[in-house]
Amino acid sequence: MDTKILNSYNIAKEMYAGHGIDVDEALKKLAEIKISLHCWQGDDVRGFLFKDKELSGGIAVTGCYPGRAGTPDELRQDLEKALSLIPGKHKVNLHAIYADTDESIDLDELEPKHFQGWVDWAKEQGLGLDFNPTCFSHPKAEEGFTLSHPDPDIRDFWIRHCKASRNIAEHFGKELGQPCVTNFWVPDGYKDIPVDRLSPRKRLKESLDEVFREEIDTRYNIDAVESKLFGIGSESYVVGSHEFYMGYAMSRGKALCLDAGHFHPTEMISNKISSILMYVDQLLLHVSRPVRWDSDHVVIMDDELLEIARELVRGDLLSRTHIGLDFFDGSINHIAAWVIGTRNTIKALLRAMLEPVAKLKELELDGDFTSRLALTEELKSYPFGAVWDYYCASQGTPVREEWLAEVKRYEQEILYAR
Ligand SMILES: C[C@H](O)[C@H](O)[C@@H](O)C(=O)CO
Ligand SMILES: [Mn+2]
Description:
Strands 3-2-1-10-9-8-6-4 form an eight-stranded parallel sheet. The protein has a two-stranded antiparallel sheet with strand order 5-7. The longest helix is centred in the middle third of the chain and has 25 residues, at 152-176. The chain has a single domain, classed as Divalent-metal-dependent TIM barrel enzymes (TIM Barrel), CATH 3.20.20.150. The chain contains 14 helices and ten strands. The model has no long low-confidence stretch (mean pLDDT 98). Helix content is 43%, strand content 11%. It is an alpha/beta fold.
């Protein structure tokens, strides 16, 4: 390893040791954390099942940066490139529309065999897989309702799709020897103020109960449900609101998914984690960055990202939290977006691990808020960057912005040739 990186690391290590922090131990723990990279950043949420279908469901990708993946092989190639620039061993999060098949089938006909290409690849790469039913970008979602649609035939279609998704997830879990987290997000809602808020929620509850009727071993599949405040076209009412899914997850023993972009603009998910984990066993995070709305910007090292990481570390909640990413920026290099967002998420966790948590808690309990503030502020300029560089180098991944040259080379040679 480069001696400058090593020397800086040793100096940083000593400084943190002065606060009783074992940096080597922190790095060991960091290496165990898996981040779930969302495949949909790679192709602007298009998928492969219905080539010409426009993105729907009240979400939007802006930008037309060249080179996005157009086939499962291209997407895997891009993911491999991104993963080679990110320290650690992680997971890939698939949506149902990313099936790897030449068959012309509908969402309710999907089977594990349609994802075997992904399973084989994940095995070869030592990755885990997560999954999502795709309840949007489909003719049967065009009226803005899926699992809560008033028409029982449409509801049944989506129930069949969600059941099929759980079977696929179970297969992933069995094949890869680690649970697949299956996240259920449905866009159902009204643009304008509804008269009846209750009935769609009753229908959603019934549909979900039917979807989850069959027990699946949690060694293979973990169900999560994701709420949302509003979407494009569902500004006034979303059936699956936060309260709806919090109640559902609590009463049904499901994991709750918190997406950072799914609340009021000043409402932070970091402040919800400790409350929710008192009542639900497991959490799924969709780490994202809302800019004025659920815009799904690439995750940066902002206050909220740091606060999320601190909550997980300070509360020792990492073992009950699945960390997924959810952003889609079509205006920059697709691979760079993954690398920036994922590296930042890991880096934020590292920063949180380099805090003297026990000491800070003690100061707080003693009512010494002056020292609490002084210390937390001073810690912000401690040399976590030197520890991060060492971690990247020791994991065989590029240090600092070195990764960008590799993305640029790949862009010239591979992406522009597509
Ligand atoms: C594509 C994802 O499933 C989607 O982003 C969902 O998780 C969401 O956050 C919708 O706003
Ligand atoms: Mn999300």
